[in-house]
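Hey, I was hoping to borrow your eyes for a little while. I've dropped the whole record in just underneath, so have a look:

——
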Amino acid sequence: MILVYFSYIRSAACPCTWQEPEPPCEAKNLGPVSGPNRQRDLCTFCTISLDQEEVFRTKVYDKSVSPFYGEDFYFEIPRPFQCLSYYVYAKSVFQRDLPVGKVSIRKDDLCKYSGKENWFSLQPVDPNSEVQGKVHLEMRLNEVITDNGSVGQHLLVRIIECQELPLISGQNCDPYATVSLVGPARSDQKKTKVKKKTSNPHFEETFFFEVTRSSSYSKKSHFQVEEEDIEKLEIKVDLWNNENLAQDVFLGETRVPVKILRKDSIHKAWYLLQPKGNGSKSKSDDLGSLRLKLTYIEDTVLPSACYTPLCNLLLKSPDVKPISASAAHILGDIYRERYEAVLPMVRLLLHHNRFVPFVSAVAALELDNTQEANTIFRGNSLATRCIDDMMKIVGKNYLAVTLKPVIDEICESNKTCEIDPVKLKEGDNVEVNKENLQGYVQKVFSSITQSSSSCPPLMCDVFRSLRHLACKRFPADPHVQYSAVSSFVFLRFFAVAVLSPHSFQLRSHHPDPEISRTLTLISKTIQTLGSWGSLSKKLVRLTAVTFLDEISSNISKESSGLENAVVLKEGEVQKRAQGKKRLGKRNFKKRWLRVSSRELSYHKHKGKEALCVIDVKNIQAVEKLDESAFSRKNMFQVVHSEKPLYVQAGNCVEASEWLEVLGQVTRCNEGRLANFHTSNYTSGTWQCCKNQNNNAPGCKPCTTTVLANLQLDIDCDRETERVFSLLSSNDTKLQDMEDACASMAVYQGPQREQEECSKFTIQEPKETFQTLKQLRNVMEELQRQHNVRNDTTAQYGSLDNPIVGKTS
C-alpha cells in the first residue's frame, strides 16, 4: 500500500491522499534494447518514481522478456506530486542500465485505474519528456514612443519563480530560464541568471521584446498589436540545469500565446512545466507491456473541529449496550466484505485508548453465537478483523525483534527444505531436507515462545480479555483459554508474517520461489504447532502453554536485557556531522546507516566496522531539517548528547521511513527535547531563528509523543475522514439497515419475514435505529462542510491549480 499523506494547515481544508499501488506484477514482450543478444540476455528490473524521484526498485529478474515481478510496496508520500511513474530497465554490467520503457500516470488519472489490474503499454523514455515543476510568469504589453516619434509596443515578460524542480543526481539543481518570443519569422531569446543549489529558484527578472512597429506616431490613435502578429506569436519559457562542463539538462518548458493579452493587459499565472514540444510523441517500436494493480483514494481533510461529533460518536461505542447498536459496530457490519474498512476505526480507538473495551464487547458478542469451543475466532468476523489490524499496527516492532533475525538467516542460508516427493528436484535428499526444515521450525518456534517479554502491553491486554471471555463462555473446557489466544498469536500473527515477510517489513523484497516454498512449509508447521488440538507432544505443549500464559496473564514479565539487538532499518545515506569548519559537498560522505533496537550507527560500507555508535537511549530528538540548511532535500537530524548528526536520505519516502523508525525507538526516552532547531548553526548563528547562542533552546516544538506502549503516529482527523468516506460511499446499506430496524421494531409476524434483516447484526432495533439517525445527522453536517470548501476551489492559474499547456 502506498500511503500518500500531505501535511496540511489545520485552519483550512487540504487534500490528504491515500494511495496503494501494488507495483509491478509482470511485464511481457519487453524490448527493443540495443545489443545483438537482447532477447536472450534481457535481465530487467522495475523502478517506481514520484515525478523524477525514484522511491523503490524491484530485484533484477534474469533472462526473460516476460518477467513476473510480483512485488508490492507500501509507503507514505510526504509531498505533493504530479505523476506516478514505473520504469523498466535492462541491467547492464559494463555500462549504465538501459531504459526499456515507462508507464507514467498523472495524479489526476489515478482514480481511473484504482482497485483493479490494468495492462499498460510501455512508452519510450525520452530525456526531454522527463519533467516536473511549475513556473510563475507575468506578461503585459507597453506602448513605446521612440526619439524620432515612431510608436511601437513592447511585450514585458517577468519570470518570478519556479517550484518543485527535479533533483539532479540526487541533489538540488542549478537552474536558469530562457525566455523566447517565437513567431513564423522570428525567435528572440533571452536568459536569466543561474540560481545555485535550489529546486525553488526565485528569479524576479524582467525581459522586453519588441512586438510591432508603427511608421509614425500620427497614423494610429490606438496602438494595438496587429491581428496577423498576435495570432502567431507566443512566449516560450524553458528551464535548464546548468552543468558547467557538460551539456545542460532540460527541465521543462511552457508556452503562452501572446493573444491572451487581448482580454487583459496584464496576465499573471502559474504554469506546469511540459515536455519539450508540449508532449508530442514520436512513433516507436513496441516496447512491451506492464501489468499493474493500484488503489488510490483521495480525501479532503477538514479542520479538526468538523470531525469532533463523528469522532465522539465512534469513541463512545464501547459503552453502548448492546455493542451491535454502536457506531463502530455498524461500520464493521455494513463493510463485512471489505477487510480493510475497519482499519481507520481501529486506529482511532487505539489512539484514544478505547480499543480494548470495544474489542472485548465485540468478542463477547461473537462468543455468544459460537456453539463449539474448538471453532472460536476461526472466521473473518468483526472481532478477528479488529484484532488482526491491531496486531499489525502495535506488533510491528515485536515482529522485527522476534522473527527478523531467523527470517534473515533462512533467506540467506537458502537450504532446501522440500519434503513433497512430487516437488523434489533431481539429486535432492528428502531426509536432509526434512532435517533442514525441522531445524528452521525449531528456531522459529523457539524465537516465538521466548519472546513474551517483548510482547506489547496492549496486545497482552487483549489476549487476557479473550482468555477470560473464552473461559466464561465454555467453563467446562480447560483448554479453550489457550486456544482463544493461540488462534491469534500463532495462526493470525506469527505464521502469516513468516509466510509473507515482505508485507510485514521483515524483508525488503519478496523471497525467491525456493525460499518462498521453505517459508510456506515453516508457516504451515507453525500454524499446526499453534493449533491447540495439534499440540500432542508434551514438551511442545508445555512450552506453548508457558508462552501463552506469559502474554495473557496479569503478571508483567520484565525483559532480562540480554536479548540480541534487532536491526530495524539500514541503508545508504549521505552523512554530515555538525562542527565541520568548511561547508559544501565535500563534507557529505556516503555512509551505511543502521538502526537497531539498541543503537544507531554508521559505517563506511555495509558489513564494515562502525565508525560511530549512538545509544538510542541518548537520542533527544529526530526531526526534519530545512532544505535551506545545506541546500539539500530529504534531510533529517539526530540530536543527541553530542553534536547533531545530519543525514540526507535517498528520497522523500526513505526520509519519512527513517524518521518513523527512529521516532519509534526513541519516543519514550526520558531526555527528549521539547523544541528543536529547524536549520544548522553556522557562522556563529542558528540559521533558523538567528540566535547567536549555540546552546539556545530550539525554535520549533518537537514532534508530539503518544502512548508509550503503542509508539504510534495517528492522525485522528485523517482517520475520521476515512470513516466518513466509507460511510458516505455505502449510504444505500445504511438506509437498508434503517429500514430493517424499523421493520423489526413494528413487525410481530413469523420469523421468516425478517430474513431480509439477516445480513445485519441487529439485537435492539430501537437503539440501533437511534445510532443510525445520529450517524446520518453527523454525516450530513460533514458533507455540508465539504460542499462549502469545494465551492472555494483554487483559481485556475494559481499556485495550487496551475495552468497546463497553452492558454487560448
Q: What stands out?
A: The longest strand covers residues 14-28. DSSP finds 17 helices and 28 strands in the chain.
